[in-house]
## 1
Amino acid sequence: MYCSIPGLALWLALGLLAGCGGGDEPPPPRERTPLDMTTTGTITGEVRYEGDVPTMATVNFGSFRQCFSQHTGPVPRGDALVQNGRVENAFVYVKEGLEERVFLIPTEPVTIDQRGCLYVPHVAGAQVGQAIRFVNSDPTLHNVHGRPAGSSAWNVSLARKGANRTVRVGVPEVGVSVRCDLHPWMQGWLGVVDHPYFAVTGADGHFTLPNVPPGDYVVAVWHERFGTRESRVSLVPTGTATVDFTLTGQ
């Protein structure tokens, strides 16, 4: 189901919609595939950028005083963060090779904050069925509008500071857009996979996927602006496999 929002006036008049889509009930438990921790290994590497780094715009807060007053200077949009050739905010995950395995869904939620009229973190990952908790830390009205392509959209209101709502995504999808309709620059991204082997790169572009069972895999990287890459990786028992990705401008 998709929630349509006819306009800002209706939001203000009704105090925002209660929300729809994005189920908040955990899925029924499935039997976990045994994992022999004495044989697991690690997949690690870096995400790099090749070429001239494209210009990254700064956020235009417009007339929203409660947003721009929380910042002391220009705020980058976060879609092209590259330092010394290393890419930040890239989502790295095992794309193929785990299809026969079932993993426990973590009981701890993934928390994404709306702070300074930005989504923090800008890119986050979760497992299918895991609770994703959105929090409003701002003294202003926000909503959370998630638009996955393969499952139900959600649109939940966070009408005051301290408000929070939880959603769960029921099928894997990488690159799920999450926006605030009231502040059009506010966009975050989700990578949702059905296993725990994913990571978001920091400023050093590095990633580590620990406790991976031995096997043959396709490891992929996704970036909102620089696109995707894939690489085949073979991991021997207790071994470490290194895979580096090189992205270019789109």
Note: DSSP finds two helices and 19 strands in the chain.
## 2
Amino acid sequence: MSPADQDAYFGLPELFMPEYDEIHISVVFTWDIEKAYWLKKQWEHIAPVKIGGVAIDGEGSTFIPDMYVRDGVTKTSVGCPNSCGWCFVKQPLKELEIHPGNNLIDNNLLACSGSHVENVFQMLKGQKKVKFTGGFEASRITEKLTEQLRGLNIERMFFAYDHLASLKHLKSAISILSKYFKHRNYLGCYVLMGFKDDTVEKAEERLIEIYRLGFLPFGMLYRNKKGEFPEPYKEWRSLQHTWTRPAAINSFMKGK
């Protein structure tokens, strides 16, 4: 999602730098705040430095295309009404101005009003290789919505398997969607791992289960606000390494 233009940097200043009036450091995750202030000191000799971003200022109430994100990434709403215990998105849902883009990173697009969703889909009709990277809430998938999705050039849509109760909604969603999106490459699913009393064995069972349903799972390893991973760290990271690589996932499942 990070910008890839010539004025985007991800570490220390280079030896020969262009002249800048101002340097902005955008912080996405809370555990990177300390690093951001360290980077501020390293860049202050280039130009005045400002620190901001989701981890500092929250989601905000506007979205500016190409600002701190890659070309094509867009966000038409912020916040979410669910307030899940493992999620850091706590602010109320708010619809934003719709800007063109093919990669939507809304926290919960389908929780928006019907008119807003329709307007977003209308914008997406002019886009190629549409990705719903922010994810869809499975319980909000309907036949009507699927008909709307059929009119888009979709590369992938994502869902989430964050807790056991969501499994029934995922089953219902794929039952509806698979009539038109039959290949699992269309249907990704973020699978939360390592939250509270989770174990490596339980997480792997969920990953296998969601694969067999027809989704391509992506293991998302939980980190707390300090950025700490669950223990045993090596086992969790090994599991994540396998279940974030489609080739490794398909190879693993051939033996099952």
Note: The CA atoms of residues 78 and 94 lie 5 Å apart.
